[in-house]
Protein 1
Amino acid sequence: MEADRFAGKVALVTGGANGIGAAVSRRLAGLGAHVVVADVDSDGGAAVAKEVDGVFVHCDVGDLDANRAAVDTAVQQYGGLDIVALNAGVITGFGLDDDFDPVRYRRVMGINLDGVVYGAHAALPALKARGGGDIIATASLAGLVATPMDPIYGANKAAVVGLVRALGPAWEQYGIRVNGLCPAFAETAIVTPIKDMLSQVGVPLLRVEAVVDTFFAALTSGRTGECWYLQPGRPGEPYGFRGVPGPRTEDGERAPAAELADQVGFQQER
């Protein structure tokens, strides 16, 4: 990684008060970037912002106006925006059985999915004004595999994966790269409620710094629309999605519609 690659760049990190977000903020600042730390945890977020000589903004990512205000803070403080880490997230911890709660459901979807949708939408004008930039959305390995222990969490993280894969090619025309980060269980506060259970069944936890390493691998790859998975003991890399089988005519030939699908970036098997 070039020493001056991030010098003077402006980054917005949601969920920056602790865990992965705080570690990303520290790494970016250490490389010379200006960092806006956004979180609902005012004390923790302000402490991280002070540590990285950045700016803190209180931001509920489930609120579109709050996301716009966070972007405005970056532009007003530092003159623009280059990097957006949409990292805020919460574990769900319930399913569709007797413990289902519509209020909790809307809240977790608001943070884990709407927070990415609103964050990307709010950042788009500022990134376009810079001639491009990068968005890295934190999804999860739960977005790539079935998650019976927390199906709602798996659903919102799978939605983030789908959004990243679609926005990558859609926003490439603006010079904006959009990638996803899909770590397994990491040593962060979000896994605290299930940490003992994971230990009992022998599931290792990722070091936060390893997750940050993969974040930067995606950030500096020059690639877009990819989801970088990370498992303990393995280097992070883009997940290889298999394309959907393409349409055929009644005679078994490749249908003309398949060519259109290729042109609009709809990934399919030939």
Protein 2
Amino acid sequence: MKKPLRVHVITEDDPLYVRCFFEVFLRECPRDQIELAGMTISRAFHEPIFKTARRIHRFYGTVDFLRLAARFAAAKIRNHSIGRLAVEAGVPLIETNSVNAPAFVERLGSASIDLIVSVAAPEVFKASLLRVARLGCINIHSGRLPKYRGMMPTFWQLRHGEREAVVTIHEMAEKLDAGGVISTRAFALRERDVLDRVIRETKREGAREMIDVLRRTSETGALPKATPLDMGQASYFRFPDPENVRAFRALGHKLL
């Protein structure tokens, strides 16, 4: 019998949105084909919490910020964490202050990992981490590449009037969001939509697309063939500023 694909997942500690991905992924992942050898959960944005709070407040505004903060507090009180989902699914948690730390990279190297999967990982992966697994690293991105490289692709797709959000699974390279595209899945957007809905549902759809990619990789022993990006068509988006939030709302969209 063929050995299952050994996968290590690197993600961020987000009990509201990224957790939606793992609710589906950990429940539906076929363990006879895919062995989840470990998971590393880093602090969101990899920055002090006050800086994150200031960034989120600037984006949402006071009313929506307080609504989101209440949701976040309730999730924390109920321990609706990704870590809890992982433990309940029997996935070992591997802690580190930085996924680029030599000791962490060495640990993965000694664990015979076939593939590293990034799901909203808050650090840029350095060359040593990108090379440590047999098949390298893949990432899931909630936007079409290379047009929607960067942060908050679901927001920017709604902001620019796209009819669909495109969830992309791609190879990881040293340059951010620049590796070849392995697989995509389209998600229909409404004329007047809610960012909260789009983020949650694209996370769930992305989990199913990731499972499909991992299943195919397990069956063949190699990643599906990737399509190189035309970086001449690339754009890069940063965290939205208040001006773009106002334009987003003017289109009839809501954040929450």
Protein 3
Amino acid sequence: MASFLPSRDSLLLAWSANFSTRITADAVALGLTAAQATAYATLQTNFETAMAAIAPGDRSKSLVATKNAARLALKTSARLLAKIIQGQASVTDAQKIELGLNVRSAPTPIPPPADAPGITILSTVGNTVKLRLFDAVDSANRGRPAGTDGASVFSFVGAAAPTEESEWNFEGVTSKTKVDVTFPEGTAPGAKV
């Protein structure tokens, strides 16, 4: 999330004046105390005074250092108060916008993939088969399909795949694209799996 605080001093001053006015007017409804609003108003005044002390063409090191210290104190306090306000369930998005804060968007869940992954057998050693899972829709994608964290791997030994979930053997969950599946010792060489 981008910072709600303007980077230029003149814009920060205007933003802060609005923020200070609004939190002073309705501190309790925003989840703040009157003391917090008053303390912020003092920081706002200090920053405004420090900005006004720097006349065009007169940028002495001490005046700039004073302004920078006032700006840092103001920004630190603004971030703290903004976090308190953002954490209040009773504060509406409209109030946050009026304060000049960012409005958090609701997360959008990513749906599960519509297609099963493709499977390639890389090697067979004894009764262990090394598989590579890949995006069956986008063959150029060597990794997991977009929006996935991993795959659940199931196996079955027999001529036809079962229709009942309980007849499959759960091999585990993997976040990798290569996975080893070890079949039972009694599995005949060349058996359909």
